[in-house]
Amino acid sequence: MNPKQLIKLLSLSTVILFAACAQTGSEIETRIDALLAQMTLEEKIGQMNQLSYDVSAGADLAQQIRIGRVGSLLNIVDPEALNELQRVAVEESRLGIPLVVGRDVIHGFRTIFPIPIGQAATFNPELIEQGAAIAAREARSAGVHWTFAPMLDISRDQRWGRLAEGFGEDPVLGAAMGSAMVRGYQGSSLADPGSIAACVKHFVAYGAAEGGRDYNSTNVPPHLMRNVYLVPFKAAIDAGAATLMTSFNENDGIPGTGNKALVRDMLRDEWGWDGMVVSDWASVTEMIAHGFAADPKEAAMKAANAGVDMEMVSGSYLEFLPELIKEGKISQEYIDNSVRNILRLKFRLGLFDNPYTDTSTPSPLYAPEHLEAARETATQSAVLLKNNGVLPLEGIRSLAVVGPMADAPHDQLGTWIFDGKKDRTITPLAALRDAYNGQINIIHESGVEYSRDRSTAGIASAVAAARRADVVVAFVGEESILSGEAHSLANPELQGAQKELIAQLAKTSKPLVIVVMAGRPLTVGDELAAADAMLYSFHPGTMGGPALVDLLFGAVSPSGRLPMTFAKEVGQIPIYYNHNNTGRPFQGTETMIDDIPREAGQTSLGNTSYYLDAGVESLFPFGYGLTYTTFEYSNLALSSEKIAMNGSLEVTATLTNTGKRQATEVVQLYIRDVAGSLTRPVKELKDFKRVTLAAGASTEVNFTLTTDQLAFYGLDMVRHAEPGEFRLWVGPDSAKGLETGFTLE
Ligand code: BGC
Q: Which of 56, 369, 482, 665 is the most buried (most CB within 10 A)?
């Protein structure tokens, strides 16, 4: 037998072994019943308690586990220490129930992929699934059973720092990416050694924080909740997500962690979901600050009654659930159901049969194929926003590399990278030197040290470097700490002296390429005007450098598309493509501020909906992105002009690569429901496809549009499609495309 055959046989036998261990749902339920029957009330409540691992807790933590007061730990990533605590749980606690260990593995464990908003820009769910599977393999090897990801919060606000962690403004894109991540993390069985449980979060509407300020109140009404904010959650639950996290925000006066109507009534009773619900970090007792509970006891009561199974770190369940049950304020049945949900997760993960982390197998951390996948994802996630022909760089002899992000190994990893190592990051500068040393004179002058650096002292040297080079590439953007949880900005623009750096570089008249590496869509109108080309890379992770160099030099053509609208001005925010029309929509011929005659009459402007100073146009629409070729759309056709209820429609269009290079187009299908029982968005993405074409090649692109895709929760709060007229577009982004129409009968 040759080595390849041996490996095949070994992996096959691993699969068979695990298939043999994997249990059916009913076997698991029988084991849960048997265990539950033996548990005391204290042991049940202990399962509902999650603690954050603290190395200094030592013997005390072990004792808590031994007496059954801890069901889960988060933030322990030392497999040896975990195995010891697991041994205490399995061998020394009365019933031997294993611990389940959670961790924020958000965009990679050690091998860091682009931040999720960048992953969304790939419009490539298969790639995202592959990345999540890699993150799972690495994380489980370190003892992590469960990640607190994906974050499915729709965001329409570029100020909200946490949008970095989500998939942008569109529910259909969010649903596709979120389900792909769930499949990637969880694999075909949670009990496989390379799988971890996913946790969809934050339930719900957390991304609608007023003013984009993190943790702020939200006011999402029921129809919008169902038709937009809940869509990715429903899809990820249908994809098998094992757990869900409630949110910090209060919506319409009810904190996510105390929202019985959404958690118990909808998620459980209406959706029939049997996964496990965890609170966010101390979000149970934070209901006191919200003014929804007077004290920790009332907070525990409201969270448990709402259907939160496990409390993350704030300990009020442990302390108050026993007396709340005695007082009849929480039913025994609720407690039993929560414990069932927790035990079900542990059984599904195979922890009762296989509680320990195997430390003897070779480490998968930073495996070459993991790095390769991270590089591919970073490549596909970058969006070309402007190019007057300077890109791809060809035939240059010298290159000035400037800006604070050119060589920022920590910052290009992005937010939430607890386990990624900056010394494994390849920055653009390192990648350039690696690929072009000796061929191109690379002159590096950062000009501005870090993104918030206000000092202009280094700008003159950067300008001097630009003058000595054929082309200047400025890597600007945001340090990773400027986005993510609790990192919102009132002015999401380039910070520090970066704007000044760009302004001075532009004066040299050298071809100027700007690469933005950031955690969010920034308002970059001024920089765009100054640039000959702009490539936008949401923090691209470990392999960002080589990916960006490949794109700049044309080894690969850009294929990322914007998962969020870019605002021209911060005052336009919230700005998103799938908004409802007003009764007085902008016509495009309105008078702007400088053209208004003095003492003009009150009604002289036509009374439409726009800003006098900024209009309604975005800087770039959702779905936008250029590449190194041009694509033309033609022959849009529908299989019929009419579609029957429960039927479907075949949509075809011809796509032609009319340029000189092979490239990938993201073909996007949008519809508009012209009149409904509720007002409908002016456009809604319904499907998309990445299509790669050689120069000059042409292909037919097909979509099947079903009436289910046209359905929404209407006035009657029932999800169905409504008869009437629809418009349909197939095109390159949410603002352009060929248009036709059909009727739903
Ligand atoms: C965040 C969650 C995260 C949790 C655990 C909270 O602050 O909102 O998304 O999973 O901490 O680290």
A: 665
